[in-house]
Amino acid sequence: MSEAIKADKVMDLKGLPCPMPVVKISKGIKDVQVGQVIEVLTTDPGSLTDFPAWARTSGNEILETEQGNGLIKIYVKRKV
Amino acid sequence: MAEQLAQIESQIAEMKQQLDALSGRMPSNKLSMVVFSGDLDKILASFVIATGAAAMGMDVVMFFTFWGTPVLRDKNKGEGQKDLMGKMFGQMLPKGACAVKLSKMNMAGLGTAMMKSLMKKKNVASLDQMMELAAELDIKIYVCEMSMDLMGFKREEMINYPDLTYCGVAKFLEEAMDSRVQLFI
Questions:
Q1: pLDDT beneath 70, residues of chain B
Q2: CB contacts, 8 Å: B49 with chain A
């Protein structure tokens, strides 16, 4: 699936409900350089719509989203 | 020719002026929220939206008024000198975020207790945690001075929040006019 995507940082947000995943990524994105990628692990299905919405308004990019067994992986690239 | 040029120049100058006036009226990327309710569910929703907005890069202003005001009392602080009505309000209204109740299904406190334990189990942040988070995210809190006075609350019994200001309706409206999103909860 996403062997091509290499994450520079992993954020484990499993078990955290709204609004924490978006709050955490908005802080965590500042810990990587522009162009670097964060792999987010979440169990919150709301993140599937929330992360793209956050990315659009903050100017960042969702590279790929994977899900299975209740776990959602979202690859976020810092663009700004 | 020169006349036409001068005419075009003056038209451009006029347009520039109008553009400046227009951009001065553009609202900022800000959320202004009136927190009128003192119910657990509505306060929780207020803080979820406020912290979410801050995460989206918005400036956030929360204006606490009427039933929302006692939520900002600190349960560990003394109330100071109050008159009889002030004492009564002080007794009857929740002292701080941990004393607020659900707007529905409170069932003499049982429903609220169940909801709180469910929130804990599901990892949903408590109101106290939400307030800490709000402070971390530089969310501004304004407290309605008129509600404070009406219900007899003293400034010394309010929580220590880094960006808390007492104000009137004009301050809220100034913020609201400059906000893309305004909510009343």
A1: none
A2: 19
DSSP string, B78-138: ---S--HHHHHHHHHS--SGGG---SS--GGGHHHHHHHHHHHHTTPPPHHHHHHHHHHTT
- For residue A30, give the chain B residue with the closest CA: B55
Interface of A with B in 10-69 (CB under 8 A): 15-20, 22-23, 25-27, 53-54, 57-58
Query: Which of B88, B89, B84, B83 is CA-nearest to residue B70?
Result: B89
Strand A61-68 relative to strand A71-77, pairing: antiparallel
Q: What is the pLDDT of residues B82-91, one digit of tens each?
A: 888 888 888 8
Q: What share of chain A is helix, strand, coil (3-state, %, to 5)?
A: 30, 30, 40
Record the pTM.
0.88
Residue A46 lies in a domain: yes
Show the tokens assigned to A26: 């908005």
Partner A contacted by B51 (CB < 8 A): yes
Using the Cβ of A5 and the Cβ atoms of chain B, whether some distance falls under 8 Å is answered with no
A4 belongs to a structural domain: no
Protein fold of B28-184: Hypothetical Protein Ychn; Chain: A, (3.40.1260)
Chain B: nearest CA to A54, how far in angstroms?
6
Interface of B with A in 118-147 (CB under 8 A): 122-125, 133, 137
The phi, psi pair for B3, rounded to 5°, reads -65, -45
Per-domain boundaries in chain B: 28-184
